[in-house]
Amino acid sequence: MTDTEEQKFLTDLEKKLWTAADKLRSTLDASQYKHAVLGLVFLKYVSDSFKIRQDELIKSFQDPASDYYLDPDDFGGLKENGEPSDEYQTEINIELEQRDYYLETNVFWVPAQARWSFLQNNNKAVIGGAELTIADAAGNEIKKKISSIGHLIDNALDAIEADNSKLKGVLNKHYTRLQIDQAKLGELIDLIATIPFTHASLNAKDILGHVYEYMLGQFALAEGKKGGQFYTPKSIVTLIVQMLEPFKGRVYDPAMGSGGFFVQSEHFIREHQGKIGEVSIYGQEYNHATWQLAAMNMAIRGIDFNFGKEPASTYTNDQHPDLRADFVMANPPFNMKEWDTGVSDDDPRWTYGKPPSGNANFAWLQHMLHHTAPNGSVGLLLANGSMSSNTNNEGSIRKALIENDLIECMVALPGQLFTNTQIPACIWFLTKNKGQRTSASGRTLRDRKGEILFIDARNLGYMRDRVLRDFTEDDLEQITSTFHKWQDQDGYCDEAVMAYAKRESEETGIDICPEPPYQDIAGFCKTTKLADIAKHDFVLTPGRYVGAEAQEDDGEPFAEKMARLTAQLSDQFAESAKLEAEIKKNLAGLGYDF
């Protein structure tokens, strides 16, 4: 099946689910409904993954070539029609309940009362309360009173947490308290049950991952400013991940929201035939519900993670104090105020100056640098003001960062990229080592000491709808390839090398630099020495350095163009005077002389 057919399948599925789910929202606001829907998506995923593993085991139990083969002759044989005898089927059922079979393939153990079939079969019966028969951990049947559909779901989540230590305290067990009609909650269960997991080329994990990511984005749109706090647009996340290439090592996000940078890092690694097991994930999030969303997001994809012991403030309760990460990526709240309550003025993170109380931009930046390994890199979204502000020590911190040669690249972004703010934004790329070395992706990096690359991407992108702009794949590739060519030993040619290459090419026909090498492009990108940045008072706005885009010469001589334009302007003035006279005449006819 082609990529286009796969994408159409996913797009049709996502739209269908969102349209139906949105109709069920009723009196719940998006922030509450988000957790209701995504919690059930998670429950459906772990249950279906469990069922898929069960089906694999049944085949293995009956396959003589499998290490798990159960010889029917040892358990009463087969019936005349070839079906398992009652004794053989009982043995298979017993084996299917052995947890080790699931744990060895990284599949969550799902107790009987948490399996999707149990929820679907009983969600109508428990409206108003009912006593259900539930199998306990030992397979014994017990009776349990369930008061509502919300209670049925919370009971399932409780059972999963109790049997999976990694999820302890992670799942949002709030369905009993939801102010939603019980019948509608039952409809929501039936709706999520329609997610199809049979597809020619996509597996269950791929499908659920897409659904989860799509719904996170839709809820961010529905919640507006509030929703954007936990969701960074996919194209921005993709751009930062592509530019940093987190192939292996420790990846850290101190303002992780729902974990978008980690998900995109996994996508990037798999698309480039890397090994996801060579990456360690570390994150931190202050909001408890969002912390839970991120953990479920990782669990759905089978990504191992360390999000600390609890949700907590990155500034006052650092969950990873000893971490030195190879890749640090984040989209923290822009221009955050009153962030430093309880933070010491001489905090060891403030190496380059104490950030002002009224704006956390340079606090985030220094916190991330503090947690960066000696060869590590940082990609950080900040408001445009961070590139030029001199308010309350910000200018001196920026100057110290530049003079210590920590900044590698600045990218100015177009407006209208975010659901939660219209504040213009930029991306800071920093590194603690600009010297020649080999990157995690295997590229040979040249010595970039004393240089910063400026990229002005404000004219890129397209309007996805009336209010939101997005990047195309070509836009992402243009920015990423520019950065990588500038970094690469084999992709960068300075003026001397370019002059030498030109002479060699003319004499031998052999191009010394690879095709095409990095070159400054007026209006788009410029490599700049630190001394030149100092002349601009250490302002890092790309537009100040890249200049204006060169305009194509139309071939018309200047004198002739001016004569033509002057004549055109004269005609327009004459037309304007004529219209003005007509308007005055009409107004006079109405008794309004002036």
Give a quick set of tags describing it.
single chain; 594 residues; globular; two-stranded antiparallel sheet; alpha/beta
Return Rg in Å.
Answer: 30 Å
| Largest sheet report | 8 strands, mixed
The whole-number mean of residue pLDDT values reads 85
Shape: globular
Portion of residues within helices: 40-55%
Q: Which class best fits the helix and strand makeup?
A: alpha/beta
Secondary-structure topology with pairs:
Layout: H1 3-23, H2 30-61, H3 86-96, H4 100-103, H5 116-122, E1 130-135, E2 141-146, H6 149-163, H7 182-192, H8 204-223, H9 234-244, E3 249-253, H10 260-271, E4 279-283, H11 288-301, E5 325-330, H12 361-370, E6 372-383, H13 394-403, E7 407-412, E8 425-431, E9 437-438, E10 444-445, E11 451-456, E12 462-463, E13 469-470, H14 473-487, H15 495-508, E14 525-529, H16 530-535, H17 543-546, H18 558-589
Parallel strand pairs: 3-4, 3-5, 5-6, 7-11
Antiparallel strand pairs: 1-2, 6-8, 7-8, 9-10, 11-14, 12-13
Helix pairs in contact: 1-8, 2-8, 2-11, 9-10, 9-14
Provide structural commentary.
This protein is an alpha/beta fold and 594 residues long. Helices cover 42% and strands 12% of the residues. The chain contains 18 helices and 14 strands. The protein has helices at 3-23, 30-61, 86-96, 100-103, 116-122, 149-163, 182-192, 204-223, 234-244, 260-271, 288-301, 361-370, 394-403, 473-487, 495-508, 530-535, 543-546, 558-589; strands at 130-135, 141-146, 249-253, 279-283, 325-330, 372-383, 407-412, 425-431, 437-438, 444-445, 451-456, 462-463, 469-470, 525-529. The protein has an eight-stranded mixed sheet with strand order 4-3-5-6-8-7-11-14, with helices on both faces. The protein is globular, with a radius of gyration of 30 Å. It starts with a helix and ends in a 5-residue tail after the last helix. The model has no long low-confidence stretch (mean pLDDT 85).
